[in-house]
Write a structure and sequence with these properties.
Blueprint lengths: L4 E5 L5 E5 L8 E5 L3 E2 L12 E5 L2 E4 L11 E2 L5 E6 L4 E6 L10 E2 L5 H4 L21 H8 L8
Parallel strand pairs: 7-10
Antiparallel strand pairs: 1-2, 3-9, 4-6, 5-6, 8-9
The protein binds zinc ion.
Length: 152
C-alpha cells in the first residue's frame, strides 16, 4: 500500500480507497497498475477493474498489488487517472485538495453501453445514476428520459 492511503469499507460500494494524509491539487496519490491490453478484461466476480486509460489501451487493475483497485467511481471525483507516457503507468492524481479521511474517487470513464449495467451510488448531488464518463452524461440523460417528457 502506498504511503498516505488505506483501504476500508466505503459508503459508495465495497472497499474504498481513503486518504490518511493531505494531498495537494495535482499531487500523485497511488499508481493504477496492472497488465496492459488492447481490450477490456472481464473479472469473474463482475467487478470492474479494467479501465481504458487512453483510446485502445486498457489496464487490468485487478491484481492484489494494485492498491488503487478499490478506488470507487464518483460523478464528482476528487482524483483523476493520469497516464504517464514516459513511465508507461497510470496514476491516481488529486483534482483538488484531499483531506485525511476522505474517500479517493475518480471517473471510470465508462461508455454509454457500459453505464447501463453499472448503477452509481456515489451520493454526489451531480450523480448521473450510472457510472459513465463525464462528457457522456448529457447523452445518458437523453437516453434514460421517458418517452413524451421534456427536461430541456
Ligand atoms: Zn454518481
Amino acid at each position: 500500500m502506498p504511503e498516505g492511503v488505506e483501504n476500508r469499507p466505503s459508503a459508495i460500494e465495497g472497499a474504498g480507497l481513503f486518504a490518511t494524509r493531505d494531498f495537494r491539487t495535482g499531487e500523485r496519490i497511488a499508481p493504477y497498475s496492472g497488465p496492459a491490453s488492447s481490450a477490456p478484461v472481464a473479472s469473474p466476480d463482475g467487478k470492474v477493474f479494467s479501465l481504458e486509460i487512453r483510446p485502445g489501451l486498457w489496464i487490468d487493475g485487478s491484481g492484489q498489488d494494485n492498491a488503487a483497485r478499490h478506488a470507487n467511481h464518483s460523478c464528482d471525483p476528487n482524483a483523476e487517472l493520469v497516464w504517464d507516457h514516459k513511465e508507461g503507468a497510470g496514476w491516481l492524481t488529486a483534482r483538488r485538495e484531499i483531506l485525511p479521511g476522505q474517500e479517493i474517487t475518480f471517473d471510470y470513464g465508462f461508455s454509454l453501453a457500459e453505464s447501463l449495467a453499472h448503477p452509481c451510488r456515489c451520493g454526489s448531488p451531480a450523480c448521473a445514476g450510472r457510472i459513465i464518463a463525464a462528457p457522456l452524461r448529457a447523452a445518458l440523460r437523453r437516453h434514460l428520459r421517458p418517452p413524451g417528457t421534456r427536461r430541456d
